Amino acid sequence: MPVIIFMMVSLPMENILVRSLLGVSYDIWVLPGLIFIISSLVLFPLLHRDFFDLRIHNKVLGNIALAPYSKNMMIMSYLFVAGMEALVAALISMVIYSGFISFPFSFSQFGFMVLCLLLYILILGNLFITVSLLTESITSHLFITFMIFIIILFGSGLIIEFSFFPRVVETVLIFQPLSIPFRTLQIFLSNGTVQWALIGLSLVLALAWILANGFLLKYKLRQ
């Protein structure tokens, strides 16, 4: 999968967008975005299975709900397991990509990228859980998921910089939740500035969303 994404995204796009607006070669600029995309693709089926497929078929999730744990703890546990799998897949993808392009990051940049990736996984994972709990038909679930991936690919700054969009659209996309961790990373990679406000906002959003999903899960299991 990492090789396919690299061939379908980076190779053609670097002939269209030779350099980013920051003056960085596109294949290097887009590398973090490809890593985030890989983690998104790995994260979805894990949470889809646990919170949608097993729920509507009355399988494992209902039995697990009988365990003496709070619903918030259950949400965090599922997020942790799925998030670790997504993170491992992202790190393996980075090793694979290093065979195509030279590794452009210092140790501090790599560490900060992992931090931002974890925040992104927390936010996206919560979104997947919410959609999985709120939808009852496979058609509506897959349609909403498809729209989410459209936003991930083209509206989160992963492969297309926000500055290429009209000003109004750019403003909306910059402040949509999925773009905040990646924008934080790009700011750090471009000038070394740590945007603590954006990191704090991402963390607060993720934790609040876990609480909301806990209440939603509790409500769904009572039905």
Features:
223 residues; 10 helices; mainly alpha
Task: Explain what this protein looks like in three dimensions.
The protein has helices at residues 2-16, 26-29, 31-56, 60-64, 71-97, 107-134, 138-154, 167-174, 179-191, 196-222. It has ten helices and no strands. The chain is globular. The chain has one domain (2-222). The mean pLDDT is 82. The protein has 223 residues and is an all-alpha fold. Helix 6 packs antiparallel against helix 9.
Number of helices: 10
As a percent range, the share of strand residues is: under 5%
Radius of gyration: 18 Å
Count the E strands.
Answer: 0
Q: Profile the largest sheet.
A: none
| Secondary structure: helix percent | over 70%
- Oligomeric state of the chains present here: single chain
Distance between the termini: 39 Å
Mean pLDDT: 82
How many domains? The number is 1
> How does the helix and strand content classify structurally?
mainly alpha
Shape label: globular
Poorly predicted spans: none
In short:
The chain has 10 helices and no strands. With 223 residues, the protein is mostly helical.
Topology:
Elements lengths: L1 H15 L9 H4 L1 H26 L3 H5 L6 H27 L9 H28 L3 H17 L12 H8 L4 H13 L4 H27 L1
